[in-house]
Specification:
- It holds the Pfam family adh_short_C2.
- This is Oxidoreductase.
- Belongs to the short-chain dehydrogenases/reductases (SDR) family.
- The chain is an alpha/beta fold and about 200 residues long.
- The chain is built from 6 helices and 4 strands.
- The chain has one domain: NAD(P)-binding Rossmann-like Domain (Rossmann fold), CATH 3.40.50.720.
- It has a 4-stranded parallel beta sheet with strand order 1-2-3-4, with helices on both faces.
- It starts with 14 loop residues before the first helix and ends in a 12-residue tail after the last strand.
- The mean pLDDT is about 95.
């Protein structure tokens, strides 16, 4: 079994470039066991100022690559005489698939698409022993965690804002070989925020 690390730089919104990259990975490594679809951009602006090109750009980065990478893996597995009996795809969704704020149409649509695409792919790829699940993070602070205010943490039932490690651990859990009975699901990881009733006091 080959081990090591390779880095491939690619614009995921460019279909040809992304598919060529995937083929290069197959050529170098033979197969892909796990895909974490985590590419994403956002553009929050008033709907009257959001162009169709802005909307399309978000979907071309956030949503379409999920389909492209999954499709290419399915095609590769179909071509194998002895298919790999293991496969995991984890799509990074967002709690924005079910809750929004003004000016987030493109981002919300892309995450809603990922949510639905996940359970469709789970059925389509099952014949190649590939499970497909999604993770919907809430507030995950990736920059200045120490600069967060006490009230930022307090609004979460878990008592803190999320960290990237929270999502990474969930990916590891889903990708464990023994967790093959988890398929087509969306896991919300947001410290309980979407379960919290909010009233004006």
């Amino acid at each position: 079994m080959q081990t090591g690390t390779s880095f491939f730089h690619v614009d995921v919104s460019d279909q040809e470039a992304l598919e060529n990259c995937i083929q290069q990975i197959f050529k170098e490594w033979g197969d892909i066991d796990i895909i974490i679809n985590n590419a994403g951009i956002s553009c929050f602006s008033p709907i009257t100022e959001t162009g169709v090109e802005d909307f399309d750009r978000i979907l071309s980065v956030n949503l379409r690559p999920v389909f492209i990478t999954s499709r290419r893996l399915a095609i590769h597995r179909q071509s194998q005489e002895v298919p790999n009996p293991f496969g995991r795809i984890v799509n990074i969704c967002s709690t924005r698939y079910l809750m929004s704020e003004p000016g987030s149409e493109g981002y919300a649509a892309s995450k809603g698409g990922i949510y639905s695409l996940t359970h469709a792919l789970a059925l389509s790829l099952a014949q190649w022993h590939i499970t497909v699940n999604s993770i919907s993070p809430g507030w995950i602070e990736t920059r200045d965690y120490e600069q967060l205010r006490p009230e930022d943490h307090a609004q979460h039932p878990s008592g803190r804002v999320g960290k990237p490690e929270d999502i990474a651990r969930s990916c590891l859990f889903i990708c464990q070989e023994e967790n093959d009975f988890m398929n087509g699901e969306n896991v919300t990881i947001n410290g309980g925020m979407t379960k919290k009733m909010i009233y004006i006091e």
